[in-house]
Write a structure and sequence with these properties.
2 copies of one chain form a homodimer.
Chain A lengths: L1 H20 L2 H5 L14 E16 L4 E14 L2 E8 L8 H9 L12 H11 L4 H19 L3 H4 L11 E4 L4 H10 L5 E5 L4 H14 L3 E5 L7 H12 L3 E5 L7 H10 L4 E3 L6 H7 L5 E4 L1 H4 L2 H13 L3 E4 L6 H8 L7 E2 L12 E2 L3 E3 L2 E3 L9 E2 L3
Parallel strand pairs in A: 4-5, 5-6, 6-7, 7-8, 8-9, 9-10, 10-11
Antiparallel strand pairs in A: 1-2, 2-3, 12-15, 13-14
Helix pairs in contact in A: 1-3, 3-5, 4-5, 7-8, 9-10
Amino acid sequence: MITNRRNFLKSAGMLTAAAALFNPASLFAQKGSKKSGSSKVMKLEFEPYELQFKHAFAISTLTRTTTPIVLTKITYDGYTGYGEASMPPYLGESHASVLDFLKRVDLSQFSSPFMIEDIMAYVDSISTNNCAAKASVDIALHDLVGRIMGQPWWKIWGFDAADCPNTSYTVGLDTRDVIIEKTKEAAPYKVIKVKLGHDEATDKMLINTIREVTDTVICVDANQGWKDKNYALDMINWLAERNVNMIEQPLSKYMLDDTAWLTERSPLPIIADEACQRLSDVKKLHGAYSGINIKLMKCTGLHEAREMITLAQALNMKLMVGCMSETSCGITAAAQIAPKMEWVDLDGNLLITNDRFTGGMEIVDGKVTLSDRPGLGIEPIKA
Amino acid sequence: MITNRRNFLKSAGMLTAAAALFNPASLFAQKGSKKSGSSKVMKLEFEPYELQFKHAFAISTLTRTTTPIVLTKITYDGYTGYGEASMPPYLGESHASVLDFLKRVDLSQFSSPFMIEDIMAYVDSISTNNCAAKASVDIALHDLVGRIMGQPWWKIWGFDAADCPNTSYTVGLDTRDVIIEKTKEAAPYKVIKVKLGHDEATDKMLINTIREVTDTVICVDANQGWKDKNYALDMINWLAERNVNMIEQPLSKYMLDDTAWLTERSPLPIIADEACQRLSDVKKLHGAYSGINIKLMKCTGLHEAREMITLAQALNMKLMVGCMSETSCGITAAAQIAPKMEWVDLDGNLLITNDRFTGGMEIVDGKVTLSDRPGLGIEPIKA
């Protein structure tokens, strides 16, 4: 009953309160990255928003047409940094839970936005979960601090932008004709991503249909959809003969031993997605998976993502970066680590009709292309 | 024979060539951190130098009065960054080997000093060892890039300068009277470091003599001096009763199993020093040691040191930063990671009479104190 009451507050009262408090047009419509004031106190603002999909989005368990997000902004000393929380329903967050969380964040206690370790340790201590809400603070902080230093984060971290791999473009499950049409749309991309984990006939139909159109390499995300390790191994062997080069989350995230069995026998690398949330998961997955899929909305943002990279590399684990449905803000934040990745799945902003930012990461000839602009290099556009 | 000839070249010919090529007074005497030119090609320069000790320096195997170092500087776009290689004889490097190495480094092939990962991967590929020479490039690069961004590295990394611990001050083996005098000199420090690993009577005399003067906490570095695990455990139990709070390298770096045995039974944390050189060592030491001592001259510099921190933390290993005899350049570089350390042993520049830099890390009331100045925040002084 207590849980129910809290959920009710989260999904009703708080959202209304937030809607009254924050006016999207006034908060995010102005160009805000340049010096426009000079308070040396960090101020966090936020606004709920709803992303609209170009195509309905099908994964193994449901179909959706929108994703709720919350846009954040932190101002300090005349600089503004932008962030974002994206809340696909399976993560258990919502407008209400994120707004509720962000109202509890008091950044005025920190003397400088550079204190990212202390600030994120504090933000992380506010609640057990709320990873997307935490990421929305982390991303805005990084944008802010990068703007102050006059550099993008890929450069601050010493990465080489030329190391960015091709990004994948998702072809979802649909009728045969629509799959063919979508595969043709994906022609500018060098990698196709396919979400499997349906029944065998459906999974094979999807792959075979794509293969009628193109031989472009395919990344498969099974989204925990395969129930048995032997079946999964058969499927992977079948896929390996069809120019598939990796499998994300073939089995349930709870089936660690079965996944280790599968990874040992699989001709393709097995990447943890649902099984890998945060830095503390990486060590546990070592030996069972070939690598990890880092998503900022799961790992609380760029600060922890940077540490996950170091740890995974030290453990000889492969690296991938993924995303939710996000604006160019979240996607460009994730793109900062693209030079260290073997696979990049950052098409979240390409699949929506109502982005809120320009100037972020671009896909040029299928490849992630990072700008030299400070912070994330993005600017807000009118809603 | 081939080795001998190479050693001869290293210790004679190359040093002479270097001495002819580089004039200390002209290279390092000017104030060089501000814009003074604008070539967008990185230029590496270097100069051999000899540090003079205030006191002769005794460890378990020898006594010395000087340490050879090489000062480096990288210029780019009107900015200058300073670095340093320190070559205590037990590391196997010398003026000749470092100068020989640095002559092979061609930074002009890189378009930007921000490409620290690529540059250090290239530098590391030039030879198998030469870690101090590699560190001298890494430190100068970090100073340079920090100056371009207008920030010190502890801040760029998101650390909190207030987290810096007290540094230790070394009281070396000597006569009873000199030990008493030196212990009194150490009064401003909150931690005393003692190098043990002599015979039992000598080790105990040193500790007992210090304890006649002060109860200040002691860090013990046994420098691989204890030959047997049972003897080491007895000594550690004896030390634990005398306000000692950690033991560095009690046994030979090759005695990994014996060290694991000892760590399991020791009331004090056991820290790897000689056993821990680089990032790749950390994982191997996990389980056998409680933590690691990071030294820039062993691990090729700040870039790798930053990764060692992340890995050690993920493996629940304790962290310490140490140094060789170095100028304020190398010491201040190492101090950038001090906020993440449990123990800091950065007195290398306090024990020499001929420092070459001002403006670096300071010890205030026994505590490492970092400046807000860009890069390392140091300026060269006349030789």
